[in-house]
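Key result, reporting period 2: structure in, sequence out.
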């Protein structure tokens, strides 16, 4: 049963926005590489134990976190599809300590920062996980080096994430809009299902790890208590899944700094910046609790940041309480 027959495919959408050819064709090729890689990842996600893809590789990554086999597999898949696109000059990846400088792609092209598999702790228990991508334009004529990747989030031209949930949905944000495409697993093509995503006026949910409450400083505990009193708690433990629900239904996600994680737990370049871009294009906001995420000038590829993300008014209220001290 072809369910997507009467829908616009991702490829058709990109072509209609002239991202499939001509002056902006490079961005279309990068987005198609993300889509292609996500189709391969989702096949492994759905196969899981049957494909012998669960469990750990036994290594630890630059984050000093145990690497899940699917972390490594998805990193390899996206590095391959992005490199093959011919439009990517460099890749920064959570699972790879140093930037991947893609040889031969000397044209203008793009720099992609990615979290290839977000929510690793949920892989083995069949809970929604995702992939996150931030896309920056290479500076004209620049010979990319490691520092080329350290760009503020405000210089992104697009961002995307894929949530491997009860359906596989790719959300794409450009400077003009935010759209959602659902994977038709029979054809392997993404079909446009969410033509214009805007975060709803009303915030319904708050997402935070309440187990950390005891190590939050007092102003942050007060801010979280206000959220607890007003909204329903939803916390999957996969940032992409928590964010996607909050984006579509209205909600706020908070992973603040605490006494153990003084810089926060989430990574600026390939979690906070891309989702901050999506949030802002959809009418939301993303803050560290003290400043706009996308204003941060990065110092390191894998640096962490506190993250308060979702409905703009609720983010602002939460930030005001944290900053009031
Ligand atoms: P990753 O799997 O890429 O390391 O990301 C996991 C992150 C994020 O997805 C989620 O919001 C957060 O870790 C959950 O952290 P806690 O388990 O500390 O709540
Ligand atoms: Mn992650
Ligand atoms: Mn990850």
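The corresponding designed sequence is given below.
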């Amino acid at each position: 049963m072809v369910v997507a027959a009467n829908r616009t495919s991702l490829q058709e959408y990109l072509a209609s926005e002239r991202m499939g050819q001509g002056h902006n064709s490079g961005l279309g090729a990068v987005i198609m590489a993300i889509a292609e890689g996500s189709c391969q990842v989702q096949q492994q996600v759905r196969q899981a134990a049957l494909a012998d893809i669960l469990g750990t590789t036994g290594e630890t990554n630059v984050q000093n976190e145990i690497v899940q086999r699917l972390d490594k597999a998805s990193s390899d898949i996206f590095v391959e599809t992005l490199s093959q696109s011919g439009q990517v000059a460099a890749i920064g990846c959570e699972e790879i300590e140093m930037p991947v400088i893609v040889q031969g792609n000397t044209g203008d092209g793009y720099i992609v920062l990615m979290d290839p598999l977000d929510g690793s702790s949920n892989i083995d228990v069949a809970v929604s996980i995702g992939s996150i991508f931030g896309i920056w334009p290479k500076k004209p004529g620049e010979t990319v080096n490691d520092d080329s990747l350290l760009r503020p989030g405000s210089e992104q031209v697009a961002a995307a994430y894929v949530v491997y949930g009860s359906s596989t949905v790719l959300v794409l944000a450009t400077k003009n809009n935010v759209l959602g495409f659902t994977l038709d697993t029979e054809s392997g093509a993404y079909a446009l299902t969410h033509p214009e995503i805007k975060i709803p006026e009303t915030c319904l949910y708050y997402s935070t790890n309440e187990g950390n409450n005891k190590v939050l400083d007092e102003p942050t505990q007060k801010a979280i208590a206000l959220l607890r009193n007003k909204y329903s708690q939803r916390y999957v433990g996969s940032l992409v899944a928590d964010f996607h629900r909050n984006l579509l239904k209205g909600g706020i996600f908070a992973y603040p700094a605490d006494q153990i994680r003084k810089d926060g737990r989430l990574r600026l370049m390939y979690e906070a910046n891309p989702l901050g871009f999506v949030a802002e294009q959809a009418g939301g906001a993303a803050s560290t609790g003290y400043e706009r995420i996308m204003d941060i000038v990065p110092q390191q590829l894998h640096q962490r940041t506190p993250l308060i993300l979702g409905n703009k008014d609720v983010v602002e209220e939460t930030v005001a309480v944290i900053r009031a001290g």
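The chain has seven helices and 17 strands. The mean pLDDT is 93. This case is discussed further under Risks and Mitigation.
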